[in-house]
Each structure stands twice: as structure tokens, then as C-alpha cells.
Design a protein that fits this description.
By secondary structure, the chain is an all-beta fold. It is about 0% helix and about 45% strand. The strands form five sheets. The chain has a 17-stranded parallel sheet that branches. A nine-stranded parallel sheet has the order 17-20-23-26-29-32-35-38-40, with no helix packed on it. Strands 5, 6, 7, 8, 9, 10, 11 and 12 form an eight-stranded antiparallel sheet that branches. A hairpin with a 3-residue loop joins strand 10 and strand 11 (about 130-140). It is globular, with a radius of gyration of 22 Å. The termini are far apart.
Length: about 450
């Protein structure tokens, strides 16, 4: 087939670091990391040219009208009761046209217990009869999330050569060290040229990254990274532990396969400012700083960043911005757009969130919020001012498990001590949901075309 490219992977590349070497969630640093771009034949420099991620071979395909199958006749242990010897069975009908006979390397990605939590599991065995196939998952090596599978749970198959059938997909044969790529289509490349106004003679370049973190430092102080473009890392782009007055200013972060684009732990007076981030397998910016026990402030901030197209690999709990176990953080004038689940995930004290814009979030999950905070009576004194939320909706197509709505602001399970001032919510499902809690104040909210303000 002329549209499939095959390349030998050099021996010096550790396949254990590549996608098919062991599909995991973001915390394990094994998200997809092959990208294509168009370039002048005389130059290998990417410059400001966007990298487009290739998709690990899957079925249903990512652009199919029906992108998920649904579990039938699930048998699983009770939730939160784990036995390492347990197997989990689910039934796949023979109407799924691709007949998966080999289990070596075959995985499933699913929302097994609720439509707000997903993970990847390895197929151990497939038993076929005339009308259906029973799929057995080894719950010891790749435990199902929450250890339960419910009927109507959605999933898809991935990581098999027989699934390689549409342009832009890839597969790695671990044993033969072969990389298979179905080339991006002419229609796709022409659209790419039009969207990015590239008119020079071009060819497709495929880039595979095996590097982990681009920068990793401990006890770094008084350092600024300014106007640098960070690209194509299998791990976190920038990781700082015990950081004091470390700043990332300007530039961009793109095509990152690890947990975060920027990750700052035990941060004091740190800043991420005016950075553009996109095409992220997992989350955007994580800052942890301050001391919740003594309410000592971190005095760190995220300002003027544009973060979009994130949570491309692990769909849930991979926000653009996360503050957990922290005090005194500030997020302002940021734009957060285009993700299946949360925009901000907050569990902190004495934080300010102002003049941020949230757009097209919670698109394919349920019971979620563009701004989410929950399950604490103690993480108080947080203020949201002059924030805007637009199109916070899920498709509801194929969603069957749990509370089916999406919220602009979700103060979940007794969350307390929040003040919301001058919030604007447009074209959204639910505006503000307060799930109990104390001393929450909501002032001057504007809701336009919102089903339940």
C-alpha cells in the first residue's frame, strides 16, 4: 500500500520509552509522541510551524461518526475492592468489523465506571463464538480504574497493525522494531498549508521524540527562561522542584507527551507569563507552593497564558492549570480552550482567579466543571473575579454513566469559602453548581443562553 510508510527503528532507541512499549496514563510518561509537519526541503528547522500529532492506530477511528463502542454484559469486582488475581470480562459484538485475534500489544481505552474518569488497560485474552467476543482484561497488570466496569461504558481498541487504516495513524512493531505510518492525506496537508499560509515547496517530515524532560532542575533560584520555544518532549517540558523566583516568560510549549508543560513544586515567587501552549497529551501548568498548615503564601502566578488542545491522551483530570495543596497563587488574564474535561482544577487557599476566559471545555465528559474545586471545608478564601465562560457543554453523544451535565463553575462536595464576582457565562449547560459547603458568595453573575444558570 503506497500510503503506508515503514521505517526501521535504530537499536539505540529504547522502545520501552515509546508508545507501544507500554501504554500508560500521564503519570507514567508514556503518551503518544510522533508528529508531522510540512517544511521547506532546504531546511529542517520547525521555526513556528505547528506540529500535528499522529494517532496510535485505533478503532473506531478518531474522525468516525461513532467513535466509541459500549460494553455489554460486564462482569467485574465491586468498586474499590481489589483482588490482584481478578480478571474483568466484557462482551464485544461481532458487528465490530475488525476481528481482533491477536492480543499481543492490544489495548483498550475506556470510561469504565463513569463518564468523568478514563484509563488504558491491556487485553489478556479474547474468546470468540458465533455471535460475540468476550474480552478478558488482566486486572493485575493494568487495573481498571475504580476496579469496576459498568454496562454501557464506552471504549475503543488501539495499538494493533490491523487497526492502521486511516491517514495520520501509526503503529510500532516492538519485536521487529518497525514503525508503520499511514501518511497524512493530501486533503489534510492542503488544509494545513491554507490554515498556516505556507506556500513554499514542501514535504512531510515525521519527527519522533525519545527525550524525557527538556529541562529539569532542583533548588533553582533567580532564573528566567525568556522567549524560548519548547517542543516535542516525551516527559514534562519544564520541571522545577524547590523553585525560588523562577520565571518562564514568553515563547511557546508544544507537542508535549508528559504530565505537564510546566511543573513547579514547592514554588516561591515563581511566574509563568505570556506563554502559548498547545497540543499537550496531558495537562498545562501545575504549580504547588506555600504551606496549607500555616497558610504561608507561595506568591506565585500564571498570567497571560494561552493554553489549548490539551488532555489529548488522558482525557480526565488533566487541566490547563492546577493548584493543589497550595496557598497564595494567582491566575489572571489566561485563555483556556478546547479540552474534554476540566480547565482549572483547584484545591488551595487564598488564591485569586481573575479575567480568565474558558472556552469549549468539558466537551466529551460528564459531571465536570470548566473551573473545578471540591471536597474540602478547609481550602477557603478563594476568589474568582471577572471570569468568562463560553460553550461549556458536552456532546452527550454516547455518554451514559453518571450526572450528564457540565458546569462552568463547579464547587463540588462541600467546597467552602469561595467568592464569585462578576462572572459571565454564555452558551453553556449549567452555570454555577454549589454542591453544599459553607460561606460561598455569588455576586453579579451574567448568564446568556444557559440552560440552568
Amino acid at each position: 500500500n503506497d500510503s503506508i510508510w515503514v521505517a526501521t527503528i535504530p537499536n539505540e532507541i529504547d522502545l520501552g520509552k515509546l508508545e507501544s512499549g507500554g501504554l500508560k496514563d500521564c503519570a507514567h510518561g508514556s503518551a503518544p509522541d510522533l508528529y508531522w509537519f510540512l517544511n521547506d526541503q532546504s531546511s529542517d528547522s520547525t521555526g513556528d510551524i505547528p506540529l500535528i500529532p499522529l494517532t496510535l492506530a485505533r478503532y473506531p477511528n478518531i474522525n468516525d461518526a461513532k467513535q466509541w463502542f459500549h460494553v455489554q454484559n460486564a462482569t467485574a469486582p465491586n468498586a474499590f475492592e481489589r483482588d490482584d488475581n481478578d480478571t474483568i470480562n466484557l462482551t464485544a459484538t461481532k458487528t465490530e468489523k475488525k476481528q481482533h485475534n491477536k492480543t499481543d500489544g492490544l489495548w483498550l481505552h475506556g470510561f469504565w465506571a463513569a463518564d468523568w474518569a478514563d484509563n488504558y488497560v491491556k487485553v489478556a485474552k479474547i474468546h470468540k463464538n458465533n455471535h460475540q467476543r468476550t474480552v478478558t482484561i488482566d486486572n493485575r497488570s493494568t487495573p481498571i480504574l475504580y476496579n469496576v466496569v459498568r454496562n454501557r461504558a464506552r471504549y475503543y481498541w488501539l495499538n494493533a497493525l490491523e487497526l492502521l487504516d486511516v491517514p495520520g495513524e501509526f503503529y510500532i512493531d516492538q519485536h521487529r522494531r518497525l514503525l508503520y505510518i499511514m501518511a497524512p492525506s493530501t486533503t489534510t496537508t492542503k488544509k494545513y498549508q491554507h490554515d498556516h499560509q505556507h506556500h513554499f515547496p514542501q514535504h512531510i517530515i515525521i519527527r519522533m521524540s525519545t527525550i524525557t524532560n527538556l529541562v529539569q532542575a532542583t533548588n533553582l533560584q533567580d532564573t528566567t527562561f525568556e522567549n524560548i520555544d519548547w517542543r516535542a518532549s516525551r516527559g514534562t517540558a519544564l520541571r522545577f522542584d524547590n523553585a525560588t523566583r523562577v520565571s518562564v516568560v514568553g515563547g511557546s510549549v508544544q507537542a508535549i507527551g508528559g504530565d505537564w508543560a510546566v511543573d513547579m513544586r514547592n514554588a516561591l515567587e515563581c511566574t509563568v507569563q505570556n506563554v502559548k501552549m498547545n497540543t499537550l497529551a496531558c495537562g498545562g501548568i501545575n504549580i504547588q507552593g506555600g504551606n496549607p498548615r500555616f497558610l504561608t503564601s507561595s506568591q506565585s502566578q500564571i498570567h497571560g497564558c494561552h493554553i489549548e488542545n490539551f488532555a489529548l491522551w488522558k482525557a480526565t483530570y488533566q487541566p490547563a492549570i492546577r493548584f493543589l495543596d497550595s496557598v497564595g497563587l494567582h491566575a489572571s488574564h489566561n485563555t483556556i480552550a478546547s479540552a474534554p474535561h476540566l480547565g482549572m482544577f483547584i484545591g488551595a487557599n487564598d488564591c485569586f482567579f481573575e479575567h480568565n476566559t474558558f472556552t469549549d471545555l468539558c466537551t466529551t465528559t460528564t459531571d465536570c466543571g470548566a473551573f473545578y474545586s471540591g471536597r474540602s471545608l478547609a481550602q477557603r478564601n478563594n476568589t474568582l473575579r471577572h471570569n468568562t465562560f463560553v460553550r461549556i457543554n458536552n456532546t452527550k453523544e454516547g455518554l451514559a454513566l453518571g450526572f450528564l451535565h457540565a458546569q462552568a463553575v463547579y464547587l463540588d462536595d462541600e467546597m467552602s469559602g469561595y467568592t464569585l464576582i462578576d462572572t459571565a457565562i454564555v452558551d453553556s449547560d449549567i452555570g454555577i453548581l454549589v454542591g453544599g459547603g459553607r460561606r460561598n458568595r455569588i455576586l453579579n453573575t451574567t448568564a446568556i443562553r444557559v440552560d440552568m444558570p
